[in-house]
Amino acid sequence: MKTTSLLAAALTGGTVSGFTAPSSRMQVSSRRCETSPTRLYAAADDTFALLFDCDGVIIETEELHRLAYNAAFTEFNLQIGDEPVEWTVEYYDVLQNTVGGGKNKMFFHFRETKGAFPTSEDGKAAPSTPEGEQDLVDRLQARKTDLYKDLIAEKAMARPGVLELMDQALADPTIKVGVCSASTKEAVTKVLDVTLGKERRNKLDVCILGDDVAKLKPDPLIYTTAAERINIDPSRCVVVEDSIVGLKAAKGAGMRCVITYTTSTEREDFYGLGADAKVPELGSRGVSLDMIFGPMKTQLDAEILAVLLVRSRFESKVVVQSRFESKGLGQLSMSSILMVRSQATEATLELFAAKPVNVYIASMQTSAKLLYSAFVKIEWCFA
């Protein structure tokens, strides 16, 4: 089984097997969502992070963004040649899967797509300097944000399953929770206030927004910054995204990525670009913390498994079972033990007797993976 499939079933709709080590309970920090200084990763071994994008993940806002941009373009009377500036649904789909951040989208449109900046405000000439171009884009973005907030107040509703998954994570002291969005702080704050509510928002461990970083998605900076602030290695973080731009940012940061796609992004080749799982909606598939983090905990405990498997060559089922239970690794069947024992070669045992753990561990990975089916079944049914 490929490493990238640990979070997902086969594309045709199969199962991934894994186990979840029991989490210890501890007092939940009251300092969630406060900015902490950058530190080396030194979080506890049983701590993970779940990071949500905002637009398209927490709420399907892309159409609202498009409508707000077009309304701002109309108010400014933008024209290139004799044509008004307007973003169609199809074109905005391209933009959101190509460029992160609203200002960057406008620069991309004017510079790359059209090759010219527009006239504005009743025939005012197109800007001819970088400073003039920046000023126009800044003013457009400010007006667009105001219009967008009005639309959010009227139409905002969280996507199915998002709040349920977030609440599970917030209640689990071994999971840090955050929001990482390339949108402006003013725009995202309104979305989070409306969809999450003040109490849930204040419980977040980290909020990194477009104003907080120098580079936007698909650059991984927003996610590496989040990992630094919550002091968790990126390999222990899972990102929930909806677009290619977000996926590239998450994978570039060395994180796992679950895609919850929208009608605008459903045709994208997410698996081809490294997505670990893909669902149309979190709610429609009943996605839970165990489904996401169970396989990761299994992989991280592979070394423990390998040691126990080698020992199992010399011990009874009762002794082996006791060892696994003491590590929180669940119940074993005799057939599973026998199957793995047959995989543990004499050469491996000799290495175990004479060499450090890291020498023999690679040869035991295959054997360890054979045990996955003995633990909790994690079923992902993908469209």
Protein model, in words:
The protein has 383 residues and is an alpha/beta fold. 44% of the residues lie in helices and 10% in strands. It has helices spanning 62-75, 89-96, 102-113, 130-155, 162-171, 185-195, 198-202, 221-230, 244-252, 289-300, 302-311, 317-326, 334-343, 346-354, 357-369, and strands at residues 15-17, 48-52, 79-80, 83-84, 175-181, 206-209, 237-241, 256-260, 277-279, 377-379. The strands form three sheets. A six-stranded parallel β-sheet has the order 6-5-2-7-8-9, sandwiched between helices. Strand 7, helix 9 (244-252) and strand 8 (256-260) form a beta-alpha-beta unit. The two termini are 20 Å apart. Mean pLDDT is 74; it is low at 1-43, 300-317 and 329-383.
Task: Give a brief outline of the structure.
The chain has 383 residues and is an alpha/beta fold. The chain has helices at residues 62-75, 89-96, 102-113, 130-155, 162-171, 185-195, 198-202, 221-230, 244-252, 289-300, 302-311, 317-326, 334-343, 346-354, 357-369, and strands at residues 15-17, 48-52, 79-80, 83-84, 175-181, 206-209, 237-241, 256-260, 277-279, 377-379. Helix 1 (62-75) crosses helix 4, helix 4 (130-155) packs parallel to helix 6 and helix 11 (302-311) packs across helix 15.
Q: State the order of secondary-structure elements, H for helix, E for strand.
A: EEHEEHHHHEHHEHEHEEHHHHHHE
Average pLDDT, rounded to a whole number, is 74
Number of helices: 15
Largest sheet: 6 strands, parallel
Task: Give unreliable regions as ranges.
Answer: 1-43, 300-317, 329-383
Shape: elongated
* Spatial separation of the terminal alpha carbons: 20 Å
